[in-house]
Amino acid sequence: MKEERYFYVPDASHQNELPKEEAQHALRVLRMQAGDEMFLMDGCGTFYQAEISAASTKHCLYNIRQTLSQKKTWNGRIHLAIAPTKMMDRMEWMTEKCTEIGFDELTFLRCQFSERTTIRTDRIEKIVVGAVKQSRKAWKPIVNELTKFSDFIHTPREGRKFIAHCYDEIDRADLFQTLQQTPQEEDVTILIGPEGDFSIEEVREAISQGYESITLGSSRLRTETAGLMAVAMAQLSKRNV
Amino acid sequence: MKEERYFYVPDASHQNELPKEEAQHALRVLRMQAGDEMFLMDGCGTFYQAEISAASTKHCLYNIRQTLSQKKTWNGRIHLAIAPTKMMDRMEWMTEKCTEIGFDELTFLRCQFSERTTIRTDRIEKIVVGAVKQSRKAWKPIVNELTKFSDFIHTPREGRKFIAHCYDEIDRADLFQTLQQTPQEEDVTILIGPEGDFSIEEVREAISQGYESITLGSSRLRTETAGLMAVAMAQLSKRNV
Q1: Chain A residues with CB-CB distance to B174 below 8 A
Q2: What gap in Å lies between CA B7 and CA B21, rounded to an integer?
């Protein structure tokens, strides 16, 4: 059985040529030729079965043969907002895994105790696209630029909003239990703090903006594992079985 | 507040000296001295509050001040048996994350389509110990040597046994739904195949040995992500809230 080849082509139905990097991959790595079949993913819910109409050293033109509308496999949107860890590789693998597991939006936060205050979102975007292709996701998660914590929480958002933290003096509900009692269609936004946690003032400010105080359970998790488990909990609560 | 220092000392109550590597860490990295407080983890359910009684360049002796029996935070045992991926780093991070999330035993499998047929379990063991300390787990997961698939499935095991695979022609139940309907105390063993999946003969052989055919859901997951999600599903089904 021939492996199906997938390429990420935003707005694929209005184009007839693979973007530069995808063309390189198709032509130089996979050595595809005119007449070969491929699948295009627009990242917005549609796959296209296409055929290479012409291939040169750098350009790969295609004709679409069939439009394949995809069904989303979970309900409601899952938005993870997380303070990036000091070590970039931990954020990178978390991004890859969250994309495979399934989520909709990723925002990096700049917090009071942040150990990292810049992040190359172009690298993160590449990892997302790679994981979208590898795991054949019909929707590409949105990656947002690093955002100041207070700007983030003061932006209006649909659905339920949660902030995970470790302060015993503030009551915390269990995130997974709460999510399982939430209608599947409702959007969720989950905030995960830096290695040194959110400051207690940040937690209180978020609560005043409608964020619910939560815990991910009794396990002591690293930042990136907390981000991953938050997405896993949301996905397991919202997926269609 | 002073950070609490944790050290892994198997059989800690019958010893009075840190193992070599732990002593090095305490003395050279953390620069601890006689009189300093520390916590010992025996990996079998007990922490000990201890004090350094004597410290030389290479030796770190301790006196135990208090025995702190821990309560397990989940019910039943979670055993993941997985074919190692070609890239070792993927198995290493999976091991770290599964330890943080919480599981009891890890076995590497040698399967028909395995891309990797050797594994340095000493490295994996070190990662487990590091994650046990970092996430303050009272029980250290057991790491087993690489085992032949057929030997593994012919070994009797308590509880429910599952094999995840991608063959449409064999009925598959949803693992998470099944786990949520299973008594928490029941042990679970979950098999995850290599990049090229188990062979269909392996799946049938496992089923004949009482393994239940399962899927992790509609997402197409890499091997290491499948291992991680299997552990996450078991943990979320078995944890005490």
Answers
A1: 241
A2: 10
- Which pLDDT score is estimated for B241? 83
Average pLDDT of the residues of chain A: 96
Which is it for strands B46-55 and B37-41: parallel, antiparallel or unpaired?
A: antiparallel
Please report the sign of the dihedral spanned by the C-alpha atoms of residue B151, residue B156, residue B162, residue B168. Answer: positive
**How many residues make up chain B in this entry?**
241
Q: Indicate if the pLDDT at residue A1 is higher than 60.
A: no
Mark A163-197 as b/e (b = at least 16 C-beta within 10 Å).
bbbeeeeeebebbbebbeebeeeebbbbbbbbbeb
Complex ipTM, two decimals?
0.94
pLDDT of residue A4: 87
Classify domain A6-69 by CATH architecture: Beta Barrel (2.40)
Q: Does A135 touch chain B (CB under 8 A)?
A: yes
Question: What does the pLDDT read at residue B2?
Answer: 65
Sheet strand arrangement including A60-69: A6-8, A37-41, A46-55, A60-69
- Return the pLDDT at A2: 65
Give the per-residue pLDDT at B3. Answer: 77
pLDDT band at residue A236 using 50, 70 and 90 as cut-offs: very high
Would the CB atoms of A220 and B97 count as touching at under 8 Å?
no
Selected residue of A225, A229, A231 to mutate for chain B interface (largest B Cβ count, 10 A): A225
A229: nearest CB among B176, B220, B232: B232
Look up residue A18 and give its DSSP letter. -
What is the Cα–Cα distance from B208 to A70, expressed in whole angstroms? 36
Where exactly are the structural domains of chain A?
Answer: 6-69, 78-238
To probe the interface with B, which of A71, A75, A97, A223 has the most B CB atoms within 10 Å? A97
The alpha helices in chain A, defined as continuous H runs, are: 20-24, 88-101, 121-134, 149-153, 175-180, 200-208, 223-238
Q: How far apart are CA B88 and CA B75, in angstroms?
A: 30
Place of tokens 């047929």: B117
Question: Any idea which architecture A78-238 has in CATH?
Answer: 3-Layer(aba) Sandwich (3.40)
Give one DSSP letter per residue of B49-102, joined into a string: EEEEEEE-SS-EEEEEEEEEEPPPSBSS-EEEEEPPPSSHHHHHHHHHHHHHH-
* B156 Cβ contact list (under 8 Å, min separation 6): none
